[in-house]
Every structure is written in C-alpha cells, then in structure tokens.
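User: My instructor asked us to take a sequence, write out its structure as tokens, and then describe one feature of it. I'm not sure where to start. Here is the sequence I was given:
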Amino acid sequence: MNGDYLFALVDPDAESPQNPNISQYLHFLQPGLTFPSSSSAPAASYPATFNSAPIVPYTQPAPPSFSTAHRYIGLLFSQPSNFTVPTNFQQYNATYRMFFNITTFAAEAGLGAPVLASYFLVSNQTMAANATTNATATSTGMPIATFTGEAPTFRVAWLCIMAGVVGAYAALVV
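Assistant: Let's start with the prediction itself. The structure tokens for your sequence are:
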C-alpha cells in the first residue's frame, strides 16, 4: 500500500435511526495514514502510522438510551498528494461534528471511492445517564465481539477491529 490514506468514521443514525435529524455525525477524520512498504515489514503485519494531526479527533460512539442501535461506518480513502480540506467542510472540528456528508466530502476533496469500508452497530442498553457503555461490534450482520465497560475499552476494541480490517486489505494489495 503506497501513499497516504484518509480514514473517516461516521454515524448515519444520529440522533436515532428513526429520526436522523443530525446525521451524519462525524466521529473521526484522520488524514496521513501510511503503511510500510512490503519490503520493510513481514507479510503478516502491516502497522499503520498517522503522519499528521486529525482534522476531527476521535470521539467514542455514544447512542442515546432512547435510540435503537446506531451504525458506525469506517471508510478508508486513498489520499491525493495535494489533499486539502474542502472549503465547505472547514468548520468541522472537535466541537462541531453534526450534519457531515461523507459522500460530498469525498467528492469535493477528490478522494474517489473508498478502498475499504467496514461498519459496526452500537446500542446503549442502559437507561441511566453516565452509565458504562455496552456495545456489540457487527460486521456483515454477524456479531464479532461484545464490549462492556468504560469508553477507553471500547475505543481500543474498535481500533483493533479496524486495524485488522486494514491489515487484511494491505495483505491483499501488496
């Protein structure tokens, strides 16, 4: 995998799948993802490196307790060498994440189609505010892991899932 990649994580179901009035909610937008060349890493491991600060830093999935499960979609794009954030998207940051449109962003940024996509479902199975997160990660409709605990545990689990997906893709194309 040569060149830089951009990773995005969006929630198309915010505020709820029944009422997506703030959709898409942008959870992470990170340019500058690189993989080592196949000659410098064993075929079984392709650790990725981010070579720049995130445009929008990561925030954990946190669907409200009144909502059914939300879809969280991770997309990996090949990043052009002349990549800049399109003018219409420069307002997105750590505090403003609502009403993002990944399709329009990709078109205006010249990213083309994603080279990799994955998703998982998260539901808030508690009715109390500030409770721990109970989440089920799903890929192609089959549960692959269940996480219970504070947000950092979930974040690590999600990053491990995406690292596995990205690593599998890297192994296929290198």
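For the description part of your assignment, you could build on this observation: The CA atoms of residues 60 and 155 lie 6 Å apart. Try explaining in your own words what that tells you about the chain.
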